[in-house]
Task: structure prediction
Amino acid sequence: MSRRLRTALDFFAVFSLPALWWGGIVLGSLGVMASMSFWTQEFPTFRPDFQFGNYEELLTNNQYVVVIARSVRIALMSCLFSFLIGFPLVYFIVFKVESRAVKLLLYMGMLIPLWVSYVLRSYTWKTILGTEGVLNSALLWLGIVDEPVMFFLYNQYAMVITIGYICMPLMMLPIYSSLDKIPRSLIEASRDLGANSFHTFLNVTLRLAIPGIIAGWTLAFCLAVGDFVSPILVGGPSANMIANVVLTQYGMALNWPLGAAITVVLLVIFVILLSASNQAERVGKVNIE
Amino acid sequence: MALVSTMTGVSVPGARSILPERRKKPTSATTSFVMILACCSLVFLYLPLIVLMVFSFNTNDLTVFPLTGFTFSWYEKAFQNAFMMEALFNSIVVAFAAVIIANAVGIPTAFALMRWDFPGKVALQRIVLMPISLPALTLGICLLNYFTFWGVSLGLHTIMIGHGTLMSSIVVANLFARLTYFDRRIEEASADLGATPLETFWYVTLPNIRTTLIGSCMIILIVSFDELALTYFINGNTNTLPMYIWSMMRQGITPEINAIGSCVIFASMLIVGVSIYILSRKPEIR
Result:
C-alpha cells in the first residue's frame, strides 16, 4: 500500500464521522436557514419560495433599523461599563498584588461569577433594582428616601448595568492574559528613561494590552448583542433588542422566514466583526523580543 | 529581574521566582487609588451573588429589606417541586450526553485539523469555531429551522444534539491549543517500538492530552448546565433547569428561585474545585 493511500485512509478513519456531524448539522442547518430567509409567509405557515421580500422588509421598515441601532448602542454601552469596572480590577491583580497566593485567589474570585448561571445573574439584578426590590427597600429602611424610587428598573441604564455585569468575566479574561504577558522590565525601562507613571501606563502598559482589550470587547459585544433575557427581565417593554425581535418572529408572529432573514443579517454582521477584530488584534500586536 | 533581562536581552520566564523580590516600595497614591477602584469592582462583582444567597434563607416572600428571619423552607420547597426535579434530571442527562458527543466529535476534528492537510481545511476551521464565537441564539435558530425542515420532533434528543454541537467547538478550541505544542517525537518513538497507531494513541497520546480533556469536560458540564439561549429554541416541551428557572421567573419573583440558584452556584463551584484539584495533580507517567 502506498504511503499516500495509507495517510488518506487514516484520515478517513479518524475524520469521517465528525465530518458528517459538522457537514450534516452545522453546515446543513446554516444552509436551511439561509434558504428559508427567501421563503414567503402565509399565516400561519410559510411556503418555499425565492424572493427578497424579507430583506426588503428589514431595510425599509423603520422599526427594525431602530431596534438594530438600539441593540448596538446598548451593547456598546454595556461593554464600556464592564471595561471601566473590570479593567482596574484586572490591572490591580496583575501589577499590584505581589504574593502569588493572593493573586491566584483574586484571579479565581474574578472568574467565579462566570460560573453562575446567566439567567440568574440577570434575575438577581431585577430583584435588586425593582420597585419592591433590595435597593429600594434598603433605602427606605435606612430612611434615605421616603417612597420607592421608580427609575431604577425598566430603562436602558438598568440594562447596561445588567448586561455589563453579565459580560464582565468575558471582558476581563483576555485583558488579564495580555497584561500578564507584559514583561516588567519594559515598564521599569520606561520609568528609568524618565516617563512618569501615567505616561508609562498610557504608552507602555495600555499600548501592549491592546490585543487583549480588543478581544475582550469583541467577546463581550457578541454576548451582549445576542442577549434576550435582560431586556425582558430588566429592560421593560420599550427596550426590545434584536434578539427579542427574532424571538417574536419565531414565537407569536410566526414569521419564520423574516426571523431567518434577521438571523442571516446578524450572522453576516458577526462574521465581519470577528474577522475585523482578528485583524485588529494582529495589527495591534507589538512583538516584544 | 530587570537586571537579568537587560543582560540577556530577553525576559527570563521564572526569573522572578528565583531572584529575591524587589525591595518593597512604600505604597504610592496611585497604588491606593487603583486598590480602591479594584475593591469597588469586586463589590460590584459579588453584590448580586450575596443578595441571591442571603434572600434564599430569608423568611419573607418578597426580596426586600429588612431581613425577617432565617429559614431553609425555600430549599425544601424547591426540592419537593416535582417539575424542578424533572428539569434537574433532564439537565444532568443533557450535560453528560453533551460531554460524550463533544468528545466523540471534537477530538477527531482537532487531530484532523492539526495533522492532515486537506481541501477545505480553512473553511472547516471557521465552521468548527462558529458555534462558540457567535451568540448561542443563532445556533439555536439554525437548528430549530433544520429540525423543523426534516420534521424532527423537538425534545430531549434535540437538546442533546444542540449542546453536543456547541460543546464540540469547545473541545476543538481547547485541544487545538494543546496540540500546537505537543511533542510528536514521543509518538514516533512509540511507533518505532512497534506499537500500532491505536496503541500509540491510547498509551502515549491520550495520557499527554489528559488534562486538557478533563478541563474541557468540566467546562462543558458547567456551560451545558447553564445554557439557555440555545435550549430555548430546540427544547419542545422538555424543560432543562435553566428553562424551568426562566419559566418560573416570568411568573414572578420568589425566594424559591434564589434557593435553586444558590444550589446551582454551589454545584458549579464544586465542579470548578474538583477540576482544579484534578488538574493540579501531576500527570502519571506510563
In short: The CA atoms of residues 7 and 53 of chain B lie 53 Å apart. The radius of gyration of chain B is 25 Å.
